[in-house]
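Progress against Task 2.4 (sequence-to-structure conversion) is shown through the following example record, which the project officer requested during the mid-term review.
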Amino acid sequence: MSETLRPLILDLVAFVAERPRPYAEVMDAWRTNCPRLTVWEDAVDAGLVTLHDGTVEASEAGRRALAGRR
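Structure tokens generated for the chain above:
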């Protein structure tokens, strides 16, 4: 995970940790056209969020990462 993007990635994890969110809502809030801003992809690759049946949630690893940032 890019250390430059880490704060944004954790913001995304916090967003879905509040409550499970529909994939479309997450993409609407976190979509980017910048190929260098890979927040969603990095969060998925790091296993911090999960997508199941169209719903995005924070994984256990994501919740631990949030707890470590506080």
